[in-house]
Amino acid sequence: MQNLNRRELEARFDQIDRAITRWMARYGLLLLRLGLGVIFFWFGALKLFPDLSPAEDLVRQSTDFVDPDWFIPVLALWEMAIGLGLIIGKGMRVTLLLLFLQMPGTALPLVTLPDAVWTDFPFALTLEGQYIVKNLVLISAGIVLGATVRGGGLTSEPMPDSPDEIHHP
Fold first, then answer.
1. For a Cys staple, 80 with which of 44, 54, 89, 146, CB 3.0–4.6 Å?
2. What's the rounded Cα separation, in Å, for the pair 73 and 61?
3. Can you tell me whether residue 2 is helix, strand or coil?
4. Whole-model pTM above 0.90?
């Protein structure tokens, strides 16, 4: 291999970087939708089998105002419907509405069962607490997918400046 000067190395790096970011822009939303769908379907399906879901006890304890014998299967089917909607990619508005209606309930134990989710409020979470807080990523993923329901997508190239564009340092 011949010696490359700095400019040639930068040009090659830029070429590789552009190819990678184009691939990410092309497939990122699809992979996000499918990955989120698998998570919802899988976690929902686990709730259909007693003692199989690690979240079952948390759901039972935090929703003591409803009968868990019917609520947990309904929640399971709800989550599976979200998962299927995301995996299939049809009816995204309804699918995302179901997701966003379900998410506040997942945060309920933060308030109703503080001993189950905090080891040292407000800094240290139990494993159950971490399970709940990770839902911030699921909510963010839903927001990103929701931004595309009118046909928008990702781009790997900069967009022209707009008044509402967020600038990062």
1. 44
2. 15
3. coil
4. no
- Give the integer Cα–Cα distance in Å for 36 and 57: 23
User: What tokens were used for 133?
Assistant: 């807080």
Listing DSSP states for 23-70 in one string gives: HHHHHHHHHHHHHHHHHHHHHHHHTTSTTT-TTHHHHHHHTTTS-HHH
Task: Indicate the SS3 state at residue 164.
Answer: coil
pLDDT for residue 164 is more than 60: no
DSSP-derived secondary structure for 87-155: HH--SHHHHHHHHHHHHHHHHHHHHH-HHHHEEETTTEE-HHHHHHHTHHHHHHHHHHHHTTTTS----
Ordered by start, the domain boundaries in the chain are 21-146
pLDDT class of 54 with cuts at 50, 70, 90: confident
Distance between CA atoms of 54 and 58, rounded to whole angstroms? 8
